[in-house]
Design goal:
alpha+beta
């Protein structure tokens, strides 16, 4: 029982900063090399991984950065 509580507590510690850092509004402007870091949903994962890709790379995955940024955006690199 104590082990389960420890696992849940550690999971909450890892997820909380990610959830708190979500952005609001449209994605910031950038150049062709700017990478947009957003959470992605993977079936079976308790913690949503973060991927940092350019707008073109997100578009190849079928993601509109401007639409998803307010909900899934974490940070911009470059």
């Amino acid at each position: 029982m104590a082990r389960t509580k420890l696992i849940l507590a550690l999971g909450a510690c890892l997820v909380a900063p990610t959830l708190a850092s979500a952005q609001s509004g449209p994605a910031p402007a950038g150049n062709a090399d700017t990478r947009y870091c957003m959470r992605i949903e993977l079936t079976g994962n308790l913690i949503e991984p973060v991927r940092c890709w350019t707008r073109d790379e997100w578009a190849e995955q079928g993601v509109d950065v401007d639409k998803e940024w307010a909900k899934e955006g974490i940070r911009v690199i470059g």
